[in-house]
Amino acid sequence: MTAQHAPAQHELLRFLTCGSVDDGKSTLIGRLLYDSQLIFEDTLAAIARDSRKHGTTGEDIDLALLVDGLEAERQQGITIDVAYRFFATPRRSFIVADTPGHEQYTRNMATGASGASLAVILIDARKGVLTQTRRHSYICSLLGIRDIVVAVNKIDLVNFSEETFDRIVGDYVTFAAGLGFRSVMPIPMSARFGDNVTIRSGNTPWYHGPTLVQHLEEVDVSQDLGARPFRFPVQWVNRPNLDFRGFAGTIASGRIAPGDQVVVAASGKPTRIARIVTADGDLDAAEAGQAVTLTLTDEVDVARGDVLVRAAERPAVADQFAGHLLWMDEEAMLPGRSYLMRIGNIWTPCSVTSIRHRVDVNTLEEHAARRLSLNEIGFCNFSAGQAVPLDPYAENRATGAFILVDRFTNRTAGAGMVAFPLRRASNIHHEHFTVDKAARAALTGNRPMVLWFTGLSGSGKSTIANIVEQALHQAGRATYALDGDNIRHGLCRDLGFTAEDRVENIRRVGEVAKLMLDAGMVVLCSFISPFRAERRMVRDLLAPGDFVEVFVDTPIEACIARDPKGLYARAQAGEIRNFTGIDSPYEPPENAELHIPTAGRTPEDCAAEVLDRLRAAGVAV
Amino acid sequence: MTSPMPTTKLPPHLARLEAESIAIIREVAASFRKPVMLYSIGKDSGVMLHLALKAFAPGKPPFPLMHIDTTWKFREMIAFRDAIAKQVGMELLVHTNQDGLARGINPIASGSALHTQVMKTEALKQALDLHGFDAAFGGARRDEEKSRAKERIFSFRGPGHSWDPRAQRPELWNLFNTRIRDGESIRVFPLSNWTEHDVWDYVLAEDLPVVPLYFAKPRPVVKRAGTWIMVDDARLPLEPGETPEMRMVRFRTLGCYPLSGAVESTAATLPEIIAEMRAAKTSERQGRLIDSDEEASMEKKKREGYF
């Protein structure tokens, strides 16, 4: 298996291995590298040394140690991250995504699966098809893997029994029938001893199929992306001088040639391909997978994020869609909370409007859910900040895959797969009225804005807001006050105080405040609004400058001492749950427009400071 | 470095790796305020630079090159570096940790660990801070070393260039998360999915220039700790009774000359190097003295800010 010089048609196959340490996954990869003679003597010497220190195979070399990279993992004897391994045969180069198998590492497995076109699913011959086998197969299916190898490992420990093998294969095929796999290849093997990995085993004379490596070399995993509709997500506009304006990117699917007519997916503006530019000269044609620079015959408006397509094959362009979401962050996903979505080369705010159901990754049963926690998968409706070109993930990953990023930590929090656009996105258009916010404001002489008072319960938000409103009213300003307690008696009386309900409460209040702002009023909102994400969401709903965050900063001790409604006493007694500051967090603003510390001051004094700042900002009071 | 005429068609696996790397390099130009490409003169840096030139043709890459010079590189490396920078017409920044130099840190008296820490890791952090770079390309590959096998293509660094292997962002599809806050940065590895074989095959296919030290030639060397160290200048103190001898040697990886072990070889052309590599029984990093200091030493160095 020593690789000769790479022949002209040498290809690259990316696959992932799924299974836990107990299944011998790391050992299998170690075996592949070992048998393909990619283990160098110095590496082997280091492994032999480590085997005595961390190994689980006694005096033998523990091949699993070849692949468990990070120190923490080796000490714990588990694989917690995705590792990429490389080996080659004379026919193909391989990139292996080595992913952990336990349920708490579903996100890592999905990460590995997102870049793979085949999966090797390990099954311990002594145990057969287990819950985790189902989980691994489902995640592979969800991420679009269509070709599967079922590696029935440790066949030596069941005496190379054909009957055992046949039973496991039968169980698997029955179970996997609904997962949409194109090929399933079961192979009996022993990773530890090498049976049917690279060398046909003399111990399984009843097995007539290929060895694992033989199959990996021969399997056809082509997706024929070139035959699919043309999609070219513009990555970078190349303008080295005034005479050249090219659009750089990688062709996601389809083919293109100079002279072909294309349209900008979002705007529908038509143009033609003038040249296909590369550093190695212009091309007569290009297809999926090639990184090129296209020039166009017309001066159409094209920027990073736009997708060039053919007019007859335009994708849906929608700001609402349904799809699967795998949650990958420690902090749970709450419907209504705003995240940043990256789809193609577009970044836009996005929130889940509802979770249609959560999928139990072990049983594939569907359950109702109000949030998605780490490693949970849901089928959700999404609402994005702008209309984006979309294809179902199964048809096109470039326009069907997306990630959600936490707006505060910037962590990659979710991985999504578009199922279909929602029709209502294309049916609901904004009506444009000639009398607008500016016209209404001019009539009253108002500077419309939203004053958002946030702070702990009992911090004095409503009291201060009340004094501010009186002053504004006396000065002839049109005002309206929205208050947490009042809103919860009507508009939001169906909501409680869980994190999910708090998010929805603030979302509704934000929308109402937006309507009142549009009506030309100064809107005073007094809400505990404990989460930064929701205050940010309301801020993003409004034009810059229209949202003024007022942090009423009263220490929790003072609020407890004051306790005007007796709520703290009840919360501390355990009678009220999810009470902010007691058993539910308050995230103080980081960059509030107004920070009002209240300690040692009267509400009138605090209100005067708010009014002073409003005057300074040009609001006549 | 980019030839004006279309080169021979690349085999499919190299064409795919090339396209993937070009996309990564473009992504950085599109997403970051001030990127820089670390250029360490070796074959991997050469391939990465060539890919950058391809990514932005007919324009130039919209970022400078930067070399962290420990002052202990082979003389032929420095000559090669300056010639390449001139040829490609990109700005080349060279940074040396002057404080370390003043303290007399060197690979011989200070030992490889301290020298690497001060003259490479600290120097790199100084240079990134000095220029305010928010993204830095490096030529590291996942196949080089175990802790690199789990490295992201876009690798997040917190304030102070810290790297936390347990808090890496999941990386799905090619949807890279490029979002950072002030004081944070990203290290980007466009060659993540290339192997040593791929790099040499590509150098051959694209006819890229490489430092002559990769080719075998009689060179003055001394045997130390089981490997051949080249006497590149008078700064290498000879031990009593030690005299340099001329041996036919070459280098599989290049770094500071007192820390780079040569291998005896007769491979004097690219095809001979490739043939020798395919028959090799030791990994390329074996000649690097800095990796063997302790178990998991690369992971430790990376946490401290090493590339």
Task: Please outline what is shown here.
Chain A is 26% helix and 28% strand. Chain A has 621 residues and is α/β, with parallel strands linked by helices.
Search tags:
heterodimer, A: 621 residues, alpha/beta, Rossmann fold, Elongation Factor Tu (Ef-tu), domain 3, 4 domains, seven-stranded antiparallel β-sheet, six-stranded mixed β-sheet, 27 strands, 28% strand, globular, disordered N terminus, B: 307 residues, 2 domains, four-stranded antiparallel β-barrel, 10 strands, 33% helix, 15% strand
Using the coordinates above, name the CATH class of the largest domain in chain A: Alpha Beta
Which strand-content bin applies to the residues of chain B?
Answer: 5-15%
Rounded average pLDDT of chain A: 87
Low-confidence stretches of chain B: 1-7, 290-296
Percentage of residues in helical conformation of chain B:
25-40%
CATH class division of the largest domain in chain B: Alpha Beta
Number of helices, where a helix is a run of at least 4 consecutive DSSP H or I residues of chain B: 8
Average pLDDT confidence of chain B is 88
Could you name the CATH topology of the largest domain in chain A?
Rossmann fold
CATH 2nd-level architecture of the largest domain in chain B: 3-Layer(aba) Sandwich
Secondary structure: number of strands of chain A: 27
**Morphology call of chain B:** globular
- What string gives the helices and strands of chain B in order? HEHEHEHHEEEHEEEEHH
Helix/strand class of chain B = alpha/beta
User: How far apart lie the N and C ends of chain B?
Assistant: 25 Å
